[in-house]
């Protein structure tokens, strides 16, 4: 038995005998954690205990049974207890469908939530006329289904829970990989007499780490422009561009007050969808598209303007802007440092006296 692998087993109160049978069948290969055996601790709110189980278990098994009668569009149908569906949804979201299973009785018709459409239940034998609730019988009845779960446990092993520390490590690894690819383009450009800033900025877009734990949704870099301060310091002149919408040359006259460069979020598009699900219930979905304009000081006299987009189904408050920017700076510090060094070489090269022939 591997006590390292934890399996949560959930059901309604009425199905405790079945839970005990599944517990016994699985215990030879894992450490089952039935809701009946102390998952929900004393003086602890059930939801909090359940959340802890979601964060520590490697698999989850739910015993479905038509315990309730529900009126659905004027017709009474047999349904699974609501809290069992809710708990399964929590584990599905965390562990995925390959590690979350549910058992349903053979030969009994009852209504499944549309959210579970596409998931195939494992079945157990259930005699409606003469139900047998002895542990020995229920272990035999659920044995075939439990063997499928055991096979998955042996094949997949432990689930790697994405802790905060692991997230940070993965983020750092992603940043290192991005930096290596970016450096490859910079080294390639170093062999040319004239640096192709468009190519370097194109590589910056491809390797930019736009993940940010401040918001759930991942941002995407749409465009980057690179500007240099003119000799008379009156304007910013474009020296490089890449990405969508950058075909037009741009420059900023610094004497005009409208050309103050600040970081800002703007909501570009709000799209609403209305659709009918399989139960003919009307559902509403809203998608918001934000754009982030972000001026970044690369070095004295060199400025990059980065345009990012993010799609979300929730409003992103303005007060999160500074946190998001700081997160992006941390994730891409190496990329900006390399770009700064490339731009320093450009400035030094411009100051060198021209060779006379």
SSE blueprint and pairings:
Blueprint: E1 6-10, H1 16-26, E2 31-34, H2 35-39, H3 46-56, E3 59-63, E4 68-72, E5 75-79, H4 82-95, E6 100-105, E7 122-124, H5 135-156, H6 164-190, H7 197-207, E8 220-229, E9 235-243, E10 251-253, E11 264-276, E12 282-299, E13 302-312, H8 321-331, H9 333-351
Parallel strand pairs: 1-2, 1-3, 3-6, 6-7
Antiparallel strand pairs: 4-5, 8-9, 8-13, 9-10, 11-12, 12-13
Helix pairs in contact: 1-5, 3-4, 6-7, 6-9
Domain CD-NTase-associated protein 12/Pycsar effector protein TIR: 7-124
Protein name: CD-NTase-associated protein 12/Pycsar effector protein TIR domain-containing protein
GO molecular function: NADP+ nucleosidase activity
Account of the protein in words:
It holds the Pfam family CAP12-PCTIR_TIR. It comes from Collibacillus ludicampi. Residues 7-124 form the CD-NTase-associated protein 12/Pycsar effector protein TIR domain. InterPro entries: CAP12/PCTIR_TIR_dom (IPR019302). The chain is of the alpha/beta class. The chain has 2 domains: 6-156, Glycerate kinase, domain 1 (Rossmann fold), CATH 3.40.50.10350; 164-351, Beta-Lactamase (2-Layer Sandwich). The protein has 9 helices and 13 strands. It has helices at residues 16-26, 35-39, 46-56, 82-95, 135-156, 164-190, 197-207, 321-331, 333-351; strands at 6-10, 31-34, 59-63, 68-72, 75-79, 100-105, 122-124, 220-229, 235-243, 251-253, 264-276, 282-299, 302-312. The strands form 3 sheets. A 6-stranded antiparallel β-sheet has the order 10-9-8-13-12-11. It has a 5-stranded parallel β-sheet with strand order 2-1-3-6-7, with helices on both faces. The protein is elongated.
């Amino acid at each position: 038995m591997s006590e390292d692998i934890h399996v949560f087993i959930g059901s309604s109160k009425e199905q405790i005998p079945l839970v005990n049978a599944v517990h016994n069948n699985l215990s030879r290969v894992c450490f089952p954690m039935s809701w009946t055996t102390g998952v929900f601790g004393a003086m602890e709110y059930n939801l909090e205990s359940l959340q802890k189980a979601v964060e520590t278990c490697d698999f989850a098994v739910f015993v479905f049974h038509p315990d309730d009668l529900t009126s659905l569009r004027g017709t009474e149908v047999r349904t699974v207890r609501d809290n069992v569906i809710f708990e399964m949804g929590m584990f599905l979201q965390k562990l995925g469908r390959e590690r979350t299973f549910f058992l349903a009785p053979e030969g009994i018709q009852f209504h499944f939530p549309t959210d579970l459409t596409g998931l195939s239940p494992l079945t157990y034998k259930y005699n409606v006329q003469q139900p047998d609730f002895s542990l020995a019988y229920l272990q035999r009845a659920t044995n075939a289904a439990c063997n499928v779960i055991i096979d998955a446990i042996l094949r997949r092993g432990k689930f790697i829970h994405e802790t905060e520390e692991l997230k940070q490590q993965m983020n750092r690894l992603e940043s290192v990989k991005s930096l290596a690819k970016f450096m490859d383009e910079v080294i390639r450009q170093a062999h040319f007499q004239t640096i192709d800033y468009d190519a370097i900025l194109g590589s910056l877009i491809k390797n930019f780490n736009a993940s940010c734990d401040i918001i759930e949704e991942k941002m995407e870099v749409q465009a980057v422009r690179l500007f240099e301060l003119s000799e008379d310091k009156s304007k910013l002149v474009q020296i490089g561009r890449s990405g969508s919408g950058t075909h037009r040359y741009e420059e900023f006259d610094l004497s005009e007050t409208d050309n103050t460069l600040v970081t800002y979020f703007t909501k570009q598009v709000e799209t609403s969808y209305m659709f009918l699900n399989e139960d003919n219930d009307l559902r509403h979905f809203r998608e918001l598209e934000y754009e982030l304009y972000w001026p970044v000081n690369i070095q004295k006299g060199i400025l990059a303007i980065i345009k990012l987009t993010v799609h979300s189904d929730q409003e992103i408050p303005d007060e999160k802007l500074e946190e998001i920017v700081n997160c992006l700076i941390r994730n891409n510090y190496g990329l900006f440092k390399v770009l700064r060094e490339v731009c320093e070489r450009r400035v030094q090269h411009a100051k060198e006296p021209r060779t006379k022939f």
